[in-house]
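Just wondering, does anyone understand these tokens?
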Amino acid sequence: MRMIDDLIRGNETFRAQEFALNRELYKKLAAGQSPQVLWLGCSDSRVSPEKITTANPGELFVQRNIGNIVPANDWNLSTVLEYAIVHLHVKEIVVCGHAGCGAIRALDKESSDAYIPLWLNNAVEAKRRVDAKRKAPANPQEADQRYREIEEENVRLQLEHLMTYPIVKKAVDSGQIRLQGLYYDLADGTLSKLR
């Protein structure tokens, strides 16, 4: 319970500082939200979207999961997409991957977990694509480079998966929204666009 108590104390600090200094913003947010960006990112605790972008509360509509995966035919994601596009009228959808992603590294490992391997099947094509273009790593630096390439390719793959959702395809084709892949480097804090 100590951790929960720490979180409650942290909230007290937030209320005394951030909330108190920005009462008008929080009053406006209490009445509703109008984010411009739907952020689809990884659950990794080191990659907080608001923190790494200095976004204010209300600017990002966030959905996170292991490996920043966009699975086909997922009810959870379907509702997020529908709400973001139809009701919030977001202008952009971002898929953000990151360095040191445990999900990407898990693609190389056998697992006895019940659910994680099934989930990661949604990213295995990224690994296949990268491995088809390169030789096996000969040293730790090449292994790290391979993982980075898979992390980046996974973002591109998940953007492709997004386009299998009719609501996304229609919104992109009509110019209502744009899709963008981003990559966050944990070592230097850089957030960059992927092509």
The domain at 33-194 is CATH 3.40.1050.10 (Beta-carbonic Anhydrase; Chain A). The beta strands are 37-42, 60-65, 92-98, 178-184, 191-194. The first strand starts at residue 37 and ends at 42.
